[in-house]
Description:
The chain contains 9 helices and 16 strands. By secondary structure, it is an alpha+beta fold.
Amino acid sequence: MKLVHATNLKSSIYDIITMPLTRINLSIYFNEHVDFQSFSGYAVRGLFYNLINRADPVFASALHNSQRLAPFSVTPVFVEKDGELYTSFRKVERGPAMVSFSVLTLDLTDAMIKLIQEGLSDLTISQHKVMLNSVKIENLEFKSLYDGSKQIESFRTMFISPTFFRLTPRDLLKKYSKDEKKDKFVASPYRFWPLPDPILFFRSAARLWRKFSNFSLDLDRFIEWVELGGVALSGYPDGIRTYRVYEHPTTNKWCVGFVGTVYYSIVRDLYSSENARIVETLLKFSEYANVGGGRTAGMGVIKYQRIQD
């Protein structure tokens, strides 16, 4: 993908807005050491809302107050070390960094592109000014994700930022208890599930695909197959680690998420070539959209790798 600088976007604007899925990568520079008040993904979400507010305050307010599935996700602040990108949790040193926004609807893409076309300036993250080095735009068709996917048999997923899934106590009882009568005693607030459960992973990815994709997949049958055990957790030999992430240090709003590399496989006696292809499609999609809870605050960032036999 060609690197597109913020001052040279007008020639490509019409190519950008016609695409259904857009990733905007900002290469930035911190002029000083910064201690974030919480996880850096919250600061990046603040930057995103500030940018949308510049482009269209009414739209920004509606987006911020919406109770619907969010049509965007962000990454935390990434810093480079020895040629690799690392997640910045609570602090960043003076130097280069990168943040990204993934936009899943055209109206939100239009707002972002309008702002970029007019020129990005006076960028602040967590009330600290940062210098914009460049902007990189990636455009992706949902259909191309499916067309380029293969019938995989095993894969690994690197959970780069804290990831969690949501379950109600009733869900947990249905999953693990044979005594259905207990169900009536359980309230329904959500609980954080900081484990790499393949069923919850693909339910989350499928929900986003259903909501925002313009290319249809047979996800009802696919989820039934996953719930029957079509995708198995093979292990995490190097371990996973959990983090408690606070939205703000003075509130009691927090979540727990895991990071680490997790291995999965398609169960042979349940193998379906079409479902195996959908597995890879949703994995590729999740690399852009994030997975699980807290997507708009930089959680659930993943990187997927197919394992060759």
